[in-house]
Amino acid sequence: MMYEGKSLSVNMTDDGIAELVFDAQGSVNKFDKQTVAELAEATATIVGSDGVKGVLVRSAKSTFIVGADITEFTELFAMPDGEVLAWVAKTSQVFNHFEDIPVPTIVAINGFALGGGCEMALAADLRVADTTARIGLPEVKLGLMPGFGGTVRLPRLIGSDNALEWMTTGRDRDAQKALNEGAIDAVVSPDKLHQSARKMLLSAINGELDWQGRREQKMAPLKLNTNEAMMSFSTAAAMVAAQAGKHYPAPHKMVETVQKAAASARDGALKLENEGFVILAKTDACQAQVGIFLADQLVKGKGKKLAKAATKAVNQHAVLGAGIMGGGIAYQGAVKGVHTVMKDIAQPALDLGLSEASKILSKGMARGKVDAKKMASTLNNIVPTLDMNAIKDADLVIEAVVENPKVKASVLKETEQTVAKDAIICSNTSTISINSLAQSLEHPERFCGMHFFNPVHKMPLVEIIRGEKTSESTIASVVAATLKMGKAPIVVNDCPGFLVNRVLFPYFAGFSKLLLDGADFTAVDKVMEKVFGWPMGPAYLLDVVGMDTADHAAGVMSDGIPERMQKIENDPVTLLYSNQRLGQKNGKGFYNYWVDKRGKPSKTPADEAYDLFKGHVAASKDFSKEEVIARVMIPMANEAIRCLEEGIVASAAEADMALLYGLGFPPFRGGIFRYIESMGLENFVKLADQYAQLGPIYQISDGVREMAASGKSYFA
């Protein structure tokens, strides 16, 4: 053994090949500080050893290297700029030293080679991958750019256009596509990977492959003339501006860095990359996106742990209540291979539910993501019925009937009398108390809430609502079933609106108060979409939700939390609902909706809405974008804080992911708690206090005031 560390080792074969093998102690290989240090030591050992004719790098695991250790980033990026720059420059030099080994090098790629794993491969002279390989530079998804030479080596291998498409989108490639684009040199079957890598390396050692020329290509400036460079980088900049917009600085910085480094050799180009990396590491967007990654890992980890504890196997679903929502829920189980009975009391509703599933599948076929076999198997997994007895063998029943407590209680009671004693019963309700609904059941321990979001097939979140009497085994089984359906479960405790709707309705209330004070709803939507980054402003979102649903839910919230959420007098939402302007449901709400000549859905601000508001709202007034954001976001932030303080949600990270998954909270802001912390708790308290006179939803809790005073964090 030439070198042996905790994450990698080097062994010399009889024919002079030094095999550098990554095999970390955990389940995957990643570039944490220890692994980087060991790579430096192993490289020095190889260079200092006699008889080494070539170097082969491979993984002893089922995947190559998944990237850097992102759990180290939070502490690392909090250091001063100079220290972050010193770290990334030092790490880059480790890759340079490997690239400079005075004999040919090859990397054998199996499974994922992402981020730092891809950069490790790029530092070698040759690359061979097996058919399982996925190769890419996804740093943009963390608000970053490659920092270990990716922006330098990849453009010089495959051209700046292709390289920038790789890096600015963060999409990985399969082995064949990577080969076609020139990022690797061969693709082989998994059983031939090691043998083929050795054979290619021996060809280089014997002078049959020009490995020196390949290495020189990566060291030299980009081969672009002035016109080519201008076209390449202006096109890339325009594409990034159109797709990423202004809120995500990372892809813009990548284009700028590759362009500036085009005329430089490796060391000059790498210096620009290191500097760009540090600039991005210090942005709010990077901190938010790294926070999302870590929060997502936490949510997935808790979900998997709960699912492992499940004692009840769920092999058959029943969905009660068809229509669009019920059809979406039935589809979601069926598409994952779960036999699903869809029951309703009316044939037209069943037809609508099946139509919803067919429509989703047809769109998938049109995009080439679903084949005829998948469509047939999914539809065959859905059994529509009018007969209640058809659900008797279901392991999990999801009630999705009309949002009426009396109707739901009646259906739940009948369900309990029909299914087996160990069947789990859930209610897909967005506002009705789970504890209240549980009173209709003899065995409330096997009952909980299972709140899906519309459209079901697109929205990742399912809120699992624990009632006072819900057993932990029920929660574990429902979490396992949710994961099997391909959704992200977040467990919350029962309260009016649960988590997502409880924090959403103060946001809507802040919006209504703003309109009553003279704001134009189109101006508010523009600020919240273009400046804050929501996919829809509050008026547009209310039109999508439906004024009938919003008005009903506002009533539930008012009854449940009267001290803060009393219904607003002359609420514009209620005015629209009372005048049958329901939003997209009937084509008229804050906006009027229609389909243009090209078949594209369109909307325009409704004069009828403005006319309705006259006499109920103050004279038209312009509000600054800062005030618009403050007046709608402070109520949401305050209620999220109260949910955490009351134990409705277990952690700030889970609250952030719930709003990201369930509402489309702007990812570059990281979630509601990350947003609060990005401005600083002390600053948030000062801002909220400026608007405290507007009512209870603007008044902060004692808990957040104490946290701000003591300098604490929700992510400590």
From TrEMBL:
Gene3D superfamilies: 1.10.1040.50, 2-enoyl-CoA Hydratase, Chain A, domain 1, NAD(P)-binding Rossmann-like Domain. The lineage of its organism: Bacteria, Pseudomonadati, Pseudomonadota, Gammaproteobacteria, Alteromonadales. Pathway: Lipid metabolism; fatty acid beta-oxidation. Residues 497-593, 628-694 form the 3-hydroxyacyl-CoA dehydrogenase C-terminal domain. PROSITE patterns: 3HCDH. In the N-terminal section; belongs to the enoyl-CoA hydratase/isomerase family. In the central section; belongs to the 3-hydroxyacyl-CoA dehydrogenase family. Residues 318-495 form the 3-hydroxyacyl-CoA dehydrogenase NAD binding domain. InterPro entries: 3-OHacyl-CoA_DH_CS, 3-OHacyl-CoA_DH_NAD-bd, 3HC_DH_C, 6-PGluconate_DH-like_C_sf, ClpP/crotonase-like_dom_sf, Enoyl-CoA_hydra/iso, FA_oxidation_alpha_subunit, FadB. It comes from the Bacteria. It catalyses: a (3S)-3-hydroxyacyl-CoA + NAD(+) = a 3-oxoacyl-CoA + NADH + H(+). Its EC number is 4.2.1.17. It holds the Pfam family 3HCDH. CDD domains: crotonase-like. Transmembrane segments: none annotated. It comes from Glaciecola siphonariae. This is enoyl-CoA hydratase. Keywords: Fatty acid metabolism, Isomerase, Lipid degradation, Lipid metabolism, Lyase, Multifunctional enzyme, NAD, Oxidoreductase.
